TrEMBL record:
Its main location: membrane. It holds the Pfam family AA_permease_2. Keywords: Membrane, Transmembrane, Transmembrane helix. The keyword Manganese does not apply. It is found in: Membrane. It is a multi-pass membrane protein. InterPro entries: AA/rel_permease1 (IPR002293), AminoAcid_Transporter (IPR050598). The keyword Glycoprotein does not apply. This is Amino acid permease. GO terms for molecular function: L-amino acid transmembrane transporter activity. The chain crosses the membrane at residues 7-27, 39-62, 93-112, 124-142, 154-172, 192-213, 225-245, 265-285, 330-352, 372-390, 397-419, 439-459. It comes from Mycoplasma haemofelis (strain Langford 1) (Haemobartonella felis). One of its GO terms (cellular component) is membrane.
Length: 485
């Protein structure tokens, strides 16, 4: 860090890379291998094509990011480039369906990785993960510098399995699995179907980049932010290919590092690596805590959320605050924590239902949340790109090409995810009906929940002639982009 309030270029790249690597590099390796039917050429081809799309996306960001002035991240881009009502839905999604579930997702992933093959009851798992989440969030509230140092320490430890495990897999490969779990439904159409079916997983791989965009006040300039993101994209792509190739060679059939011959007869060595891998999820949890509070604070400054104002009036006496900056962060921390606890309960209930009806439990729910949240975030980015093209038709041909190509990839991934869940709900090609039905239910809840407050406000004004303060004070933002007119 160059000074007390700014990040150096290397520190910015580090935060971006550690946000994208995290638990995803160990979670999605096995998933992508399964989708490719253990056929490495199709997997490498997918990464190569997606890398071209990411490079095109990086060029688009170069044009869009300079318009960002605060820590709102891509929500500032949405405010500038998207229609008013669509932007409102995006604000709702980020507040209610991105910030809290993402913290729940990675805290539980970390606990599951820590336990390895041992089973833990859902209530105990939820309580343990919640305790870790509260601790990490409190640390980020108290001191950004402390949270950054913890992130650096976690990254140092995560580098050990990140570099070592692929080498162990190549030198001491295990035996191929005789009972391979083949993908069902549309995913099982063939080896090259991964060119489409693997896109949601790849979106999850790269979706941590916007954590850095929510720390704009820590950047020296917009150019530093863009440069750091582009460098981190290249580093993350190389690391993922390195891990996937090493795991595929070391464990033919399922790319599972626990099957490496190096761990046979060495259970303590395996436990050591399991602990280090669990730290990857906690590293992502810490990076999201770093950015989520900053982004929520910036969004509140833009829109003046009424529920946060009511919460502030309950927690503090009226009058001029003695430390307004800390009080603002504390209120947003409380608000985020309350919604996070609620989502812990929701995820616990869904995991219990999944365990009862199809025997998959928590992992199935977490995988669904990971893919859906990542796809929705990139869906917002696709809308931002399209909106920017419409508002600025006289852009260069290169920008148009990059915007269209990166936008098409995102739209295809979202469409495939929806079609897969719908067809799977009806049992297409042996797909798990309950699992796909649950995923489709989560997706619909995200969509309806994002538009419901705004729709309620519209009905109140249209039919009841009643002023609703569901999200934003109408008088203050009369005629603005936030309310229905």
């Amino acid at each position: 860090m160059t000074s007390k309030n700014t990040l150096s270029s290397s520190a910015a790249v580090f935060i971006s890379v550690s946000s994208m690597i995290g638990a995803g590099i160990f979670m999605k390796t096995s998933t992508l291998n399964k989708l490719s039917h253990n056929y490495l050429p199709s997997l490498i081809t997918l990464f190569f094509i997606f890398l071209l799309s990411i490079l095109a996306f990086s060029y688009v960001l170069i044009k869009i990011i300079p318009s960002q002035s605060g820590n709102g991240g891509f929500m500032e881009w949405s405010k500038v480039n998207c229609p008013p009502r669509l932007n409102t839905a995006f604000v709702n999604f980020i507040r209610y369906f991105y910030h809290p579930p993402s913290l729940v997702l990675f805290s539980i992933y970390g606990v599951l990785s820590l336990k390895g093959d041992e089973k833990m009851s859902t209530p105990l798992l939820i309580m343990f993960a919640l305790l870790i989440t509260i601790t990490v969030m409190f640390m980020n509230l108290v001191s950004f510098k402390t949270a950054y140092r913890v992130q650096l320490a976690l990254w140092t430890m995560v580098l050990i399995p990140l570099i070592t495990l692929p080498i162990l897999g190549i030198i001491w490969p295990g035996e191929g699995s005789t009972t391979l779990e083949k993908p069902s439904g549309l995913d099982g159409a063939g080896k090259w179907m991964i060119m489409i079916s693997g896109l949601p997983s790849l979106l999850f791989i790269f979706d941590g980049f916007y954590n850095l965009a929510s720390l704009k006040d820590k950047m020296q300039s917009s150019k530093q932010l863009v440069r750091s993101l582009c460098i981190s994209f290249a580093i993350v792509t190389f690391l993922y290919l390195y891990v996937i190739i090493g795991f595929s060679v070391g464990s033919p059939g399922n790319a599972e590092y626990r099957n490496f011959s190096a761990f046979k007869g060495h259970p303590y060595l395996l436990e050591f690596f399991e602990i280090l891998i669990s730290l990857a999820a906690f590293m992502t949890l810490n990076s999201m805590s770093l950015s989520n509070i900053s982004q929520l604070t910036a969004m509140d400054h833009m829109y003046g959320f009424q529920d946060i104002k009511r919460l502030r009036s309950l927690c503090f006496y009226k009058g001029k605050p003695s430390n307004p900056e800390f009080e603002h962060r504390f209120i947003h921390w409380i608000h985020l924590m309350m919604h996070t606890i609620f989502w812990f309960l929701v995820v616990g209930i869904m995991a219990s239902l999944s365990q009862k009806f199809n025997g998959k439990g928590m992992e199935d729910v977490l995988d669904a949340l990971a893919d859906i949240i990542s796809s929705f975030i990139f869906g917002i980015l696709a809308c931002i790109i399209i909106g920017n093209l419409i508002k600025q038709p006289k852009t260069s041909i290169l920008f148009k090409y990059c915007a269209i190509s990166s936008g098409v990839v995102i739209v295809v991934a979202l469409s495939y995810l929806f079609i897969t869940y719908v067809s799977g709900t009806f049992g297409y090609e042996g797909a798990d009906r309950f699992s796909n039905g649950l995923k489709l239910f989560i997706m619909c809840i995200f969509i309806l929940g994002s538009v419901a407050p705004q729709f309620k406000e519209f009905l109140n004004r249209k039919f009841l002639r009643k002023r609703s303060y569901t999200l934003y004070p109408y008088d203050k933002y009369k005629g603005s982009i936030i309310t229905f007119k």
